[in-house]
Write a sequence for this structure.
């Protein structure tokens, strides 16, 4: 018997992070607190990013909304004929940092594999609250669904991926009622959600809270381990094998949440990668992340 949405949302979920001692929350739920020289990962990718900014046909800074953070870049495959499969990438940064300008390498890497690739920037805390961060990302997806055909993309062949907070925002896309936004036929071929924090509640027990300013209501509205997903598609949930158990448990719980909703879910921990190593997998077509993304193209 199919579970109703209300019954599904009210069904209790096991939450391993509730048993973590308060003094240990920072080490489990703030990746920057336990990994030295986090910005070094970005510096070491600057060479490939610079190359990607010159990708042939790249279109930068397309507006999808009413602020300077609601912008996106498009990376087309070389010499490809449309309509093309589309991939939307959502960056991380704990809802309070980063932009598309740090991820051109993702755009090029996926364009090289035949995707018309969209890399977005979205509003951030503390200038915005989590409602606005989520809404901005959903607006970006809606722009893609409504406009990507004008750039050679196939709106019936959209896949998405997101890392960290970007995985949470990918989950927000899956949980949205798109028919209420005049998009009754939204199709997502495949979602790859990487190293996500799907329940924001643990973040309020870390130093990140000073910037993201979570409230009980914000957490409840954007805890995607409880909200019924709405957009049906295969989902791959990936965590780094080198991440703290508390962080990994968020991916485990979210994957189980999707299974209970009847989704086709693949969950695994990738090697011994830490939270920031994982992003380098976009540069390797044979990596776990790229294999999962390319699965939508090869299906």
């Amino acid at each position: 018997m199919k579970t109703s949405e209300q019954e599904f949302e009210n069904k209790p979920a096991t939450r391993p992070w509730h048993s973590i001692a308060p003094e240990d929350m920072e080490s489990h739920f703030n990746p920057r607190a336990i990994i030295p020289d986090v910005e070094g990962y970005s510096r070491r990718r600057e060479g490939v990013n610079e190359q990607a900014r010159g990708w042939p046909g790249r279109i930068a800074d397309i507006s999808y909304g009413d602020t300077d953070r609601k912008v996106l870049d498009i990376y087309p495959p070389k010499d490809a004929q449309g309509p093309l499969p589309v991939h939307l990438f959502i960056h991380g940064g704990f809802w309070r940092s980063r932009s598309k300008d740090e991820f051109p390498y993702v755009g090029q890497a996926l364009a090289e594999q035949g995707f018309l690739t969209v890399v977005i920037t979205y509003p951030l805390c503390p200038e915005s609250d989590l409602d606005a961060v989520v809404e901005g990302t959903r607006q970006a997806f809606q722009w893609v669904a409504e406009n990507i055909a004008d750039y050679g993309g196939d709106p019936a062949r959209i896949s998405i991926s997101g890392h960290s907070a970007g995985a949470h925002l990918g989950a927000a896309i899956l949980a949205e009622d798109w028919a209420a936004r005049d998009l009754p036929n939204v199709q997502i071929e495949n979602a790859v959600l990487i190293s996500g924090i799907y329940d924001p509640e643990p973040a309020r027990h870390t130093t990140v809270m000073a910037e993201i300013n979570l409230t009980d209501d914000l957490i409840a509205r954007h805890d995607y381990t409880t909200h019924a997903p709405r957009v049906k598609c295969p989902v791959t949930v990936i965590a780094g094998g080198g991440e703290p158990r508390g962080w990994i448990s968020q991916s485990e719980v979210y994957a189980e949440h999707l299974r209970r909703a009847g989704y086709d879910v693949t969950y695994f921990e990738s090697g011994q990668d830490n939270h920031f190593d994982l992003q380098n997998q976009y540069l390797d077509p044979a990596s776990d992340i790229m294999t999962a993304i390319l699965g939508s193209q090869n299906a």
